[in-house]
From TrEMBL:
Obligatory cofactor(s): pyridoxal 5'-phosphate
Keyword terms of this UniProt record: Aminotransferase, Pyridoxal phosphate, Transferase
Species the sequence originates in: Brevibacterium linens ATCC 9172
Keyword Iron appears in the UniProt entry: no
Protein name: Aminotransferase
Matching Pfam families: Aminotran_1_2
Domain of life: Bacteria
Gene Ontology molecular function: any one: pyridoxal phosphate binding
Gene Ontology BP terms: amino acid metabolic process
Chain ranges of the Aminotransferase class I/classII large domain: 30-386
């Protein structure tokens, strides 16, 4: 038997419909775009200055696999305070964005054939990364009946003796929802009972508007002994969204030392290390003034109101007010088209680029994801075009 030139894993890697829609939109260069999942702000000046200074000071060589000590320590300090528990630098691994943090988290917990529970809809790269490891993704539906929140009872129903990890994402891309503390406590208890790891993607943890936000690192499993801390988690964070640093590619994963230590070995064989100057900029992001973050979050909160008001005034559309992130998850099911067909028609006939809900999993059918990290003018123009589409149906 001859070997195929391309490995079965690479040949069957799931294509991203987000990327497909991006590529289609390239043919419409002046389309109004609500597709991009990143802040429309530039990186704050003091962070850029720290990166430039680091280059001028020749921090341009290889650095430690797990991240420079100053950054591991700054992240540990920030999250010890946020979570009110002791996080040491040894609990922190610095990564190329949250994407590589996810790679590490899955690498240390999942073996071929293991099952990984993921929400549907969710960030499509979860599916791809599980596939890359030869794992089996098991989807759990998240619907409006549950206020677009993943529920512990649905996770429980999907657990088998092959479950190695559960990926949760609160606040959620694309749903804009924040999970309830009670569900997190129950999922933590299930993790202890069944011996799986909770991989918690928390990259939008600072982009929460008017609800209480709880990290998996803050909960006590409902079944835990008094004083025991939950440690079957890997919490993923990023500088990308919080500090408008998507292109710097700096993220991290926090967890117990037995999970974190092997990640440095894996990094040696993957990329060796992140650039030291990027990491120095990240230290400045944490240790410098947080006013830019507060201003950006306030602006997303304000634009959310505009988006909610305009969308809910359009015949046939409905939008639950997102509690967090900069994504509107718009129910378009009354319009009767598949979300891909609708997104394509909006692009071709109205010069409006959106992401079809089905790009995030089968349960996303009947929805569009619209980004509101854009100007008021862009939100208004986009909503005018949706109105025009509604009028022409
Ligand atoms: C839910 C979620 N996780 C992870 C990422 C990746 O972030 P990073 O830029 O840190 O790799 C994104 C980016 O869109 C995201 O939406």
């Amino acid at each position: 038997m001859t070997k195929s030139r391309i490995s079965p894993m690479a040949a069957s890697y799931p294509a991203s419909d987000i990327r497909k829609m991006f590529n289609l939109a390239l043919d419409f260069p002046d389309a109004v775009k609500l597709t991009v999942g990143e802040p429309d702000f530039t990186t704050p000046e003091h962070i850029k200055a720290a990166g430039i200074r680091a280059i001028e000071n020749d921090n341009t060589r290889y650095v430690a696999n797990a991240g420079i000590p100053e950054l591991r320590s700054a992240i540990a300090g920030k999250y010890s305070a946020r979570w009110n528990r002791s996080i040491t630098p040894e609990n922190v691994m610095v990564s190329f964005g949250a994407m590589e943090a996810l790679t590490f988290a899955l690498d240390v917990t999942v073996a071929p054939g293991d099952e990984v529970i993921i929400p549907d809809p969710s960030f499509p790269n979860y599916m791809g990364q599980v596939h890359r490891l030869g794992g089996v993704a098991v989807s759990v539906r998240v619907t409006e009946n549950n206020d677009l929140k993943l529920r512990a009872e649905d996770v429980r129903a999907a657990i088998t003796d092959k479950t190695a990890a559960v990926i949760i994402n609160s606040p959620s891309n694309p749903l804009g929802s924040v999970m309830d503390r009670a569900d997190l406590e129950q999922i933590a208890a299930l993790a202890d009972e069944h011996g799986f790891t909770v991989i918690s993607d928390e990259v939008y943890d600072e982009m929460v508007f008017d609800v209480e936000y709880t990290s998996i690192a803050e909960v006590k499993p409902s079944t835990a002994e008094v004083g025991a801390e939950f440690d079957r988690f890997l919490a993923i964070g990023s500088f990308s969204k919080t500090y408008a640093m998507t292109g710097w590619r700096c993220g991290f994963v926090i967890g117990s030392q037995d999970f974190i230590a092997p990640m440095a070995l894996l990094q040696e064989g993957l990329t060796s290390s992140l650039p030291g100057f990027v990491q120095e900029a990240a230290v400045a992001a944490i240790e410098g003034p947080q006013t830019a973050v507060e201003e950006m979050v306030a602006s997303y909160a304000r634009r959310r109101e505009l988006m909610v008001e305009r969308i809910n005034a359009i015949e046939g559309l409905s939008l639950l007010r997102p509690a967090a992130t900069f994504y509107a998850w718009v129910n378009v099911s009354e319009w009767g088209l598949s979300s891909w067909e609708l997104a394509t028609r909006l692009l071709e006939d109205h010069n409006l680029a959106t992401i079809p809900g089905s790009a995030f999993g089968p349960a996303g059918e009947g929805y569009l994801r619209l980004t509101f990290a854009v100007s008021d003018e862009t939100i208004n123009t986009a909503c005018d075009r949706l109105e025009a589409f509604a009028a022409g149906r």
